[in-house]
Design brief:
This protein is of the alpha/beta class. The strands form two sheets. Strands 2-3-5-4-7-8-9-10 form an eight-stranded mixed beta sheet, with helices on both faces. The chain has a two-stranded antiparallel sheet with strand order 1-6. It is globular, with a radius of gyration of 18 Å. It has one domain (4-296): Alpha/Beta hydrolase fold, catalytic domain (Rossmann fold). It contains eleven helices and ten strands.
């Protein structure tokens, strides 16, 4: 069993605009010893909504969306994937496989949510959510996708991603806060950037973030990509409502989801201006309102 790292609690003290109580799920079975962190806010009289983060981030990215969603009556849960945020971090990057992240997310949803839960899938959160959704489609309510990339033979932005990956690994330290700041239009504060670095006291803690770009299914022949591709194909049968909220430069990816998922037809999809990949940092209030409106229909 590889070493499991746990970020000290004091690393999370005093983060800007982040005053949420931590909650933890102790995994069992083959994952015994791993602890998964999540936020759990709101009464839930209008249902449950899970917010899934992506690369470079953790549940901190949702700090400005949670309040409006809770005010609208939802129970809002925002987990940190294993290897990110306040969740435990296996030091061995080989433990971060698609299968493992599907299993960890499934365990969280089974233990912490009720049937009918809605999912907001940002970036690679969709990679791990799609196999979970298609594995038990009747359990989930409405779906929202932002900055999620479809597993297509020649996906939008493929060359950009390969260039980006090479640039990230060429740096002396694998960037986290700087990665997010680079993908935001507004100017983030030094303290906000540092908050994205907070879960990673040194490079040993970054096995998960470093592994994510290598298992992202850009080359579809990779064995790791198969389960994601099969889930993508299975989404053609998804009958629940689905919404896309993307930045205005990523319309091709949004259209791919709209064309693949029958329940996306006729929805109020948005391409938001004045934002970039991490649009949650640029337009949290607007995204929260779009989600509230969508769930209320």
């Amino acid at each position: 069993m590889s070493e499991i790292l746990r970020t000290p609690d004091d690393c999370f003290a005093g983060l800007p605009d982040y005053d949420f109580a931590p909650h933890y799920l102790e995994l069992d079975g083959e994952d015994a010893g791993l602890r998964m962190h999540y936020l759990d806010e709101g009464s839930g009289e209008r249902g449950e909504l899970v917010l899934l983060h992506g690369q470079g981030s953790w549940c901190y990215i949702y700090r400005h969306m949670i309040g409006p969603l809770v005010a609208a009556g939802y129970r809002v849960l925002a987990p940190d994937f294993i290897g990110f945020g306040r969740s435990d971090k296996p030091a061995d990057g080989e433990r971060h496989t698609h299968a493992a992240h599907h299993r960890w997310l499934q365990a969280f949803l089974d233990a912490c949510t009720s049937p009918g839960v809605h999912l907001y899938c940002f970036d690679w959160g969709s990679n791990f959510a799609l196999p979970v959704i298609t594995g038990d489609p009747g359990r989930y309510g409405k779906l929202i996708f932002s900055s999620a990339q479809p597993p297509l033979p020649n996906p939008p932005g493929k060359q950009w991603f390969l260039d980006w990956r090479a640039r990230m690994f060429a740096q002396p330290k694998f960037p986290m806060g700087e990665m997010v700041a680079e993908g935001v239009v507004r100017e983030m504060s030094v303290a906000e950037i540092a908050a994205y670095d907070a879960p990673f006291p040194d490079e040993r803690y970054k096995a998960g973030p470093k592994r994510f770009p290598m298992i992202h299914p850009v080359v579809l022949e990779e064995p790791e990509a198969r389960v994601y591709i099969e889930a993508w194909d299975a989404m053609r049968a998804w009958q629940g409502p689905a919404l896309t909220l993307y930045n205005s430069n990523d319309g091709r990816s949004a259209q791919a989801f709209q064309q693949q998922i029958p329940g996306a037809a006729g929805q109020s999809h948005q391409l938001l201006p004045d934002c970039s990949f991490y649009l949650i940092e640029d337009h949290p209030q607007r995204l929260a309102q779009a989600v509230v409106d969508f769930l209320a229909d």
